[in-house]
Task: inverse folding
């Protein structure tokens, strides 16, 4: 007997379903796309238990007749294309005719639908791909799809799903993306009865940004609109005054379809070149309108991957489009109050070092003798009675990034951020181990908005964060209140940096899949935010303190918590060799 058998219809259906329906969010995506294709102007999504229990999508689109409703969940049935030629000029989001069939194969599906022309609607129930019931029903024009018990008949698949809150995060992510693109559609998303997103129809994308991300961000967005030949790029992008630690806030569409495309990410990075520090990303939402025949969307069943026939042209229009809009804005780099003070302090000190007499002279004429004497005392105190004994003599700071010091045997180049990060890391580690973290209540608690897909993730972390002295409460909507933070952070980080900290935290791999991140990971993130930045001008006193603490407080002064060096030594011998002195 041969070994090959023909697979049963049931097995084939489940295999095919797996390609389209990976998780609850894929169901939501397919259902939203169908509602959009059906010209809906309101799409309400109600989710129970992360979508594993139930997903309900209600739209006010064109609806289906009874015949169409019965065909809709069969495989390869579509109203959107007819011939092979149509495949090369696709204008709808769907066309493969397999989404509803795939969903029906792995869930208990109910379709309730009515066209405007008909008086009475149709209700269809399908379980595991098998039609169970068809009956007339009174309902409004439009379509309601209810998907219950996803993967009830594919237990293996169910096992691979993450926690309900993680799965819901993915759903919120999808709804966010579509509500940015379809301005004329009112999107609403609830989870277990709680309203998570409400994004009414509006005229401008910036309004949508304020519905989803909050006003703070919306106020810092500018419009992008660039046309070239048959291409157009439009959307919004953030001023360089705000930025994010991850690419999570870059959302790109091509002809109204969400895509994750490396070429587009590179073009956006390039547009912000030198405008944002390395490792920082903008908030960008753009749509590329391109003749359908110049792009191939039929690469993968989920349609998330695409291929441009002329990638260079697309790259350039995205890059130039964004960059031109940015440069047109007045992008005065804003120096913060803190930086200004540091610069002033440093200049005063340089004057003191260069010519103490000059200070005496000028101050005599301006302020009188008394003051001058005080000044001289100050000068003596700072310059000649260092509080921190260090093994090295500090020569100065280079590029506001490196401290240069010597012990007459070597020159030491210290990375100020890496060194301070090591110090803060060990200080905080110690506080944490000894259970005596100094936490400081904020006089004015920070209200922070997080992206809707991150709400549940952050809620899961709140108790854990308290053990690190970070006290955050859920406020409602997508807002959280930061009440206290470790003193160590408070001394250095601005409100924006604390926001960044939370953003970065929510992008950790562990957090994304619903696990608690490792203690060390949190401590090193706290250390990073509590450390003096590269680019910050430092007074002599501050530099001395860093070097003093690096050697007196840390067990390992020579690398930062990420393993990068903090200090580089150039030996005298090496200098001799370099200058060809033997
Ligand atoms: P596709 O979208 O690729 O055509 P689907 O399996 O997603 O395939 O849907 C099959 C058909 O069912 C669609 O072509 C459309 O005619 C109909 N349909 C699905 N959802 C809706 C809806 N919300 N409103 C109206 N018609 C719908
Ligand atoms: Mg579809």
Result:
């Amino acid at each position: 007997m041969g070994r090959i058998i023909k697979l049963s219809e049931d097995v084939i259906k489940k295999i095919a379903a797996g390609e389209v329906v990976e998780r609850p969010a894929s169901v939501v995506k397919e259902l939203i796309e169908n509602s959009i294709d059906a010209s809906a102007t309101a799409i309400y999504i109600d989710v129970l238990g992360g979508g594993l229990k139930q997903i309900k999508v209600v739209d006010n689109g064109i609806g289906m007749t009874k015949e169409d409703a019965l065909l809709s969940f069969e495989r390869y049935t579509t109203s959107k294309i007819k011939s092979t030629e149509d495949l090369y000029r696709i204008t709808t989001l769907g066309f493969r005719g397999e989404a509803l069939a795939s969903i029906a194969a792995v869930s208990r599906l109910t379709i309730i639908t009515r066209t405007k022309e008909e008086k009475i609607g149709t209700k269809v129930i399908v379980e595991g791909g098998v039609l169970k019931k068809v009956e007339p029903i009174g309902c409004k024009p439009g379509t309601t799809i209810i998907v219950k018990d996803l993967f009830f008949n594919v237990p293996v698949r169910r096992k691979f799903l993450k926690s309900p809150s993680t799965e819901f995060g993915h759903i919120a992510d999808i709804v966010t993306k579509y509500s940015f693109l379809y301005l004329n559609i009112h999107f609403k998303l609830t989870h277990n009865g709680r309203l998570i997103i409400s994004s009414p129809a509006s005229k401008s994308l910036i309004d949508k940004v304020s519905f989803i991300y909050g006003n703070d961000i919306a106020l810092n967005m500018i419009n992008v609109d660039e046309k070239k030949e048959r291409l157009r790029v439009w959307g919004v992008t953030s001023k360089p005054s705000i930025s994010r630690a991850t690419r999570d806030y870059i959302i790109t569409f091509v002809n109204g379809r969400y895509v994750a495309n490396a070429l587009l990410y590179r073009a956006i990075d390039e547009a912000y070149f030198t405008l944002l520090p390395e490792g920082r990303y903008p908030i960008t939402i753009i749509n590329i309108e391109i003749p359908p025949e110049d792009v191939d969307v039929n690469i993968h069943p989920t349609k998330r991957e695409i291929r441009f026939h002329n990638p260079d042209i697309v790259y350039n229009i995205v890059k130039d489009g964004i960059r031109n809009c940015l440069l047109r804005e007045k992008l005065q780099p804003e120096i913060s109050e803190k930086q200004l003070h540091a610069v002033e302090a440093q200049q005063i000190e340089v004057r003191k070092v260069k010519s103490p007499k000059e200070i005496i002279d000028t101050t005599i004429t301006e302020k009188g003798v008394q003051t001058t004497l005080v000044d001289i005392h100050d000068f003596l105190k700072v310059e000649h009675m260092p509080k921190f004994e260090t093994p090295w003599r500090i020569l100065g700071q280079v590029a506001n990034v490196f401290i240069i010091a010597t012990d007459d045997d070597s020159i030491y180049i210290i990375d100020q951020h890496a060194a301070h990060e090591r110090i803060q890391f060990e200080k905080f580690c110690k506080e944490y181990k000894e259970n005596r973290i100094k936490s400081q209540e904020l006089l004015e608690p920070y209200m922070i908005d997080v992206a809707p897909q991150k709400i549940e993730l952050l809620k899961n972390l709140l108790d854990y964060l308290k053990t690190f002295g970070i006290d955050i409460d859920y406020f409602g909507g997508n807002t959280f209140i930061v009440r206290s933070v470790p003193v160590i952070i408070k001394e250095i980080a601005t409100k924006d940096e604390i926001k960044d900290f939370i953003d970065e935290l929510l992008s950790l791999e562990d957090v994304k899949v619903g696990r608690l991140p490792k203690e060390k990971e949190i401590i090193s993130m706290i250390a990073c935010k509590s450390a003096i930045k590269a680019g910050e001008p430092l007074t002599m006193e501050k530099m001395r303190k860093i070097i003093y603490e690096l050697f007196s407080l840390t067990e390992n002064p020579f690398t930062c918590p990420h393993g990068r060096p903090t200090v580089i030594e150039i030996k005298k011998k090496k200098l001799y060799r370099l200058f060809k002195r033997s």
In short: Residues 30, 34-35, 38, 59, 61-64, 68, 72, 77-80, 94-101, 143 surround adenosine-5'-diphosphate (ligand 1) (CB under 6 Å). The first strand starts at residue 42 and ends at 48. Residues 331-386 have pLDDT under 50 and may be disordered. The radius of gyration is 30 Å.
